[in-house]
Amino acid sequence: MARNEFLDLLKSEIKRIDDSHTAKRGEMIIDGYTSDANPKAIIGSKKYTVFNSNDYLGLRHHPKLKQTEAEASEKFGTGPGAVRFISGTLRVHKELESEIAKFHSRDDAIVFSSAFAANLATLFCLTKGQSKVSLVNSDVLVVSDELNHRSIIDGIRLANLAPEQKAIFKHLNYGDLDRVLSENVGKFARVVLVTDGVFSMLGELQNIAKINTIIKKYDAKYSQGILLVVDDCHGVGACGKTGRGCEEIFNSKADLLIGTLGKAFGADGGYVTGSQVLIDYLRESAATYIYSNSISPGTAGAALAAITLLKHTEGKALLKKLEENVTYFKEKVKVAHLELAADSAHPIQPLLIGDGERTKKLKSAMFKEGFLITNINYPIVPQKRDEIRVQISATHTFEEIDLLVKYFKTQFGK
Prior knowledge:
The chain is α/β, with parallel strands linked by helices and 414 residues long. Helices cover 42% and strands 16% of the residues. It folds into 2 domains: 26-55 and 313-412, Alpha-Beta Complex (Aspartate Aminotransferase, domain 1), CATH 3.90.1150.10; 63-310, Type I PLP-dependent aspartate aminotransferase-like (Major domain) (Aspartate Aminotransferase, domain 2), CATH 3.40.640.10. The protein has helices at residues 3-19, 63-76, 84-87, 91-103, 115-127, 150-158, 174-183, 208-218, 246-250, 276-285, 287-290, 297-310, 313-335, 356-368, 398-412, and strands spanning 32-33, 41-43, 46-50, 108-112, 140-145, 166-169, 190-196, 198-199, 204-205, 226-231, 256-260, 270-274, 348-352, 371-372, 374-376, 387-391. The strands form 4 sheets. It has a 7-stranded mixed sheet, with helices on both faces. Strands 1-2-3-14 form a 4-stranded mixed sheet.
């Protein structure tokens, strides 16, 4: 059959990936979790301490979230039934969007099936449009940090812009961003400037205040201005005194903030929040919202419970404990004479190894000792910057952190 030629091409590509030892489809299967205060993953008959989860506050196992999830499922069913413009919007989704907007002090918010879908839609919609006057595609320049997440990269690709409409500034280099905006004055009507808030490989933070200072310098020089889009999926709920992420840390805001309910909030789904006109435009234009089911009612209920919890005493205590755990881990790593790949104040703590094979062996050795950690290798990180990405949670104990660092030190000595 003719299609066999194509299938042979796919087999060849799969073999190439397998031979390069970068395959991702052989992920471990977790059979469940213990009922501890910091639940351990159960794999087969063994329990593992989890140090590779985005669940920074430990909320996905929280009794209140589980209870609220069950109550919402009982009331609205297990799924949304259809997309919202066809079968209607469930009250729990509207309540969630309202609480997200309040949490971020915005006019409104829109919930997507994932933050990846939110990024794709947002970047496509801000660079496309039906009007040949105000939203013409050729008048738009997209400016992106060189280490932005894959969902941002794919969102820019989806926009199908000409090469001259895409610019990249050096990672966290505000002088280079200034150069890009200066060189393109007079060439475009509108700029969409997009960046991660927290960069997930190293836990580095984008200084939104510095970016907004540069935007203010050039905004009036573009007839439609400069829109700042920040994907702060790893920041919201994980950093800032009240968990508002990079905007809170730098006391500065984006025009559109993209977040997730699937990391610190312990649920699932993505969202965009901003001014009413921008959110209304996305509701009318975002294909991954209009033509795709929303998150389940139960998930929306759990996310609502998480936002409510974070605003009150228990949430503040979890944020404080998370900060203490990060500080404690860094101190222990320093005492053990281990090296971090970046000076991160975020729960993402990258342990520098510098060799791909060594990171894989270290991950396997730590697995045997009962720890789940993740190795990050080239090309995800630069050559010789291979790392073990440790992710700290508010539910980790000092004793668990002590054991982790102890076994790291033991393995390094071998």
